[in-house]
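Batch manifest, entry 17 of 40.
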Amino acid sequence: MRIGNREVNVHLIFNYSVMTLLVIYIFTHSLLDIVDQLTRATTHIKTQAQIGCNGHQELCNRKYSNITHIATHDAPFVGVLPMENQNVDIPAQLDAGIRFLQAQAHRNAFSKLSLCHTSCWMKDAGLLKDYLKVIKEWLDSHPQEVITLLLTNGDHLNTTDFDESFQQSGITPYAYVPHGDPQKWTLDSWPTLGELIAANTRLIAFLDHGADQAKIPYLLNEFSYFWETPYNTLDPWFAQCTIDRPKGLDKFPAVVAQRMYIMNHFLDTKVLNMLVPDRRDAKRTNAWRGAGSIGEQAERCMGMYGRAPAAILVDYFDRGQVFKAQDRLNGFW
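Output type: structure tokens
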């Protein structure tokens, strides 16, 4: 019996030790990040000039499919904790020049559709309808801007559940609806930014799973229009640009050639066997050139597919030179 108690005590000591280490890690990194945040609080994030289309006159006559956007990965999860991927809120991201937002949606404990990081018990950034309302209000006051929204449907919910949140937010009049069979859609099928602005269909919304465009035509099936490179990357050099999703698409090069692609360029690190965003190396990861930079991985992708990514997903977009990389890929310098 004493042996059994000793085994139980050993297990308890081990579990408490692991929990203590995790708490120390979170506290230490959070404290360092708070100091970093306070240091940078006096640094104003530059607001993009509202000229032309999405800040550039040259983009007005360019097709949506021929533009590279820096995209904020897990855009609503703002703060200094390990499950938070951005430093500033959605209006500040948009004011700075972000035009592509990605977010996770899950049912919360009250069965409401909410923006949650993996689980609503881990991080709940509020209701989807409120998030959409913020974007809608920003679009109201910025008539020359087009925003892309990518939602991940982690709970495999019905597309009508998402439609309810969109309707409640009042954003649906802005939503773009493609005319034509998604399976026959090509890069040239997309309108220009100028055409989207003229029609006032300045929100392009994608759902990664469960979209049914026959029922809800403005919620587009992501993988009918995009493919993605691998995510949850631990390699700081991003030494790949393979097609990760949808699975098996690489066997159909003609289809690959007619879809936009998303380059996942956010770096994770392992802590007690858990993946967390690598905040410490964000400046290097988000640099426009150099080893492990946005520019280096984009050049690798362009060498393989002959064109730039349509979206580049990043964490902590305000660290590094993301807009310099975006401008370079769009041919502005």
